[in-house]
Write a structure and sequence with these properties.
mainly beta, Jelly Rolls, six-stranded antiparallel sheet, 0% helix, globular
């Protein structure tokens, strides 16, 4: 397995990085959430392995934010410019497959004081 990065909300394991795509396995603790953010270029697909994940995603045409309850086997693709955040409904394991822009994160709001 690749590199594990501890996060305030859980951890991420980087499974594969190459010239074409990135694959990560993430664990989101129950009640924890990542920053509300968007990507300028990165596209990512989330696939839930176990547990319940709440995906907060901004509507493309408004400032409204929908909450999507995701369970094992559910997936969702987030395109550039769409603000979003993940929250653990329970302890949750999920995969993130994305394009290669690892540092393409614009944080709009963060529970942990990160910029």
């Amino acid at each position: 397995m690749g590199e594990r990065i501890d996060k305030p909300w859980g951890f991420e394991d980087i499974l594969e990085v190459n010239d074409h795509y990135v694959v990560k396995r993430l664990m989101m603790k129950q009640g924890a959430r990542c920053s509300f953010q968007y990507h300028e270029n990165k596209t990512e697909t989330i696939y839930v392995l176990s547990g319940t994940l709440r995906l907060h995603v901004q509507d493309e045409d408004s400032d409204l934010v929908a909450v999507i309850e995701m369970r094992e086997g559910d997936h969702y693709t987030i395109t550039p410019g769409i603000a979003h955040r993940m929250e653990g409904g329970t302890d949750c394991l999920y995969l993130e497959s994305s394009t290669t822009e690892l540092d393409d994160v614009v944080r709009l709001e963060d529970d942990y004081g990160r910029e």
